[in-house]
Amino acid sequence: MRSISLILKQFSRSVLLVAGFTILGLSAYAQGDAAKGKTIFEAKCTACHKVDQRLIGPALGPQLDKETDEKFLVKWIQNNTALIAAKDPKALAIYNEYNQSNMTVFPDLTDADVTNILTYVRTEWKTMQEDAKKAPAGGAVETDKGPSNIMIFGLIGVILVAFIVIMVLNKVVKTLERLIANKPDLLVEPVPVEEVQVDKYAGIKKLAKNKKFVFFVLLCVSIAGGGWTWMTMWNTDVHQGYQPVQPIKFPHDLHAGAMKINCQYCHTGAYKSKNASIPSLNVCMNCHKVITGLKGSNAPSAEIHKIYDALGYDPQTQKYDSTKMRPVQWVRIHNLPDFAYFNHSQHVKVQGLKCQTCHGPVETMKEVYQYSPLTMKWCIQCHKRTEVNTKGNAYYEKMEAVHEMIRKGEKVTEAMMGGIECGKCHY
């Protein structure tokens, strides 16, 4: 009997040890390293997922609240295509829910890596929920507790001081009244003085009679008026410094300056046509479908929201509603007269000028304004000092070939000189 009891004790200890190690192993499997998971998440997942908001894929925080099967999640992330091919019910449900769009597979991630990612997402989602609970709902305003005791006592003190001052002044007035009543000779009546009429405009009248002074004043007024008229006419239609308010505030200092985006990424016509062209909002959405504009928040900024509204775009569903689309009414800044012909491609592509030559340091402008006067004098001065670069330029190589033919006495037509180009006649 004693040997049987010893055997049972040893067996029970073995069972307890195995169960303990199993529990520890499962807990270690379920609880990964959130710090390592954050690093992997930012490298692998941020292009399609956010913790609290839908991007290309679903918001992962709420998704992991619904799905707690760790083994399934590990297999899904590593190779969801294999699960779908194997007709796994959960995998097929997710696949159909998101319009049968395939998620990227990550066979290079180990089970521990995936567990670290899941731990990071759950930890981050829990932190976001706690922060949301702590924040006052709807921007609650602190309740008015009424005036403080210091203010009340201060007002009482001011009233008491005012009352004392009134009492003192009343006593002084009564004392003066008694003094005057006892000694009436103290009051001396003022002696009336006859007022002498003084002509305020005597000096002006005297100058008006001086013919030389009048002639000098009229001459100065004529010169000043003529100069003002000339300057006003000279600067007619010159809008240097013009900075209208645009419907969407586009910060060029951020895009062209800090982000170093090339001007021709948006203004694509500058190198190939007469007009630089206004970029369509689809160009904006290349970036702002993901970039919301507010640091530390997933909500779009007010200006980016204007882009969404103009396109009828819903950032939650990532779909466009054509019935809500409307054009943005941009205000033109640089405007030449109709009789002046300017071709962007001739300056940008042929001559190789930078945009800043005419438009100024756009990369430093919070809001764009007209930097140059754009007058004929300004253009002529630029043409006088700008050296033409003919090396490696096909346009000028063609012109040199034509001049060489002229020198040799060969036949040269207007077509060879560019005479049949549309822009020569049709502005």
Draw up the topology in text:
Layout: H1 2-30, H2 34-44, H3 60-66, H4 70-85, H5 89-97, H6 111-134, H7 149-182, H8 202-208, H9 211-234, H10 252-258, H11 263-266, H12 281-288, H13 302-311, E1 313-314, E2 319-320, H14 344-350, H15 356-359, H16 376-385, H17 394-408
Q: Would you write up a description of this structure?
A:
The chain is mainly alpha-helical and 427 residues long. It is flat and about 125 Å long. The protein contains 17 helices and two strands. The longest helix is centred in the middle third of the chain and has 34 residues, at 149-182. The relative contact order is 0.05. The protein has helices at residues 2-30, 34-44, 60-66, 70-85, 89-97, 111-134, 149-182, 202-208, 211-234, 252-258, 263-266, 281-288, 302-311, 344-350, 356-359, 376-385, 394-408, and strands at residues 313-314, 319-320.
Summary?
This protein is an all-alpha fold and 427 residues long. The chain contains 17 helices and two strands. It is 53% helix and 1% strand.
Secondary-structure class: mainly alpha
Mean pLDDT: 80
Low-confidence residue ranges: 1-12, 14-30, 137-144
The succession of helices and strands, N to C, reads: HHHHHHHHHHHHHEEHHHH
The helix tally amounts to 17
Which percent range fits the helix content? Answer: 40-55%
Shape: flat
Termini gap = 115 Å
The count of β-strands is 2
Largest sheet: 2 strands, antiparallel
Oligomer: single chain
Strand order of the largest sheet: 1-2
Bin the strand percentage: under 5%
Cα gyration radius (Å): 42 Å
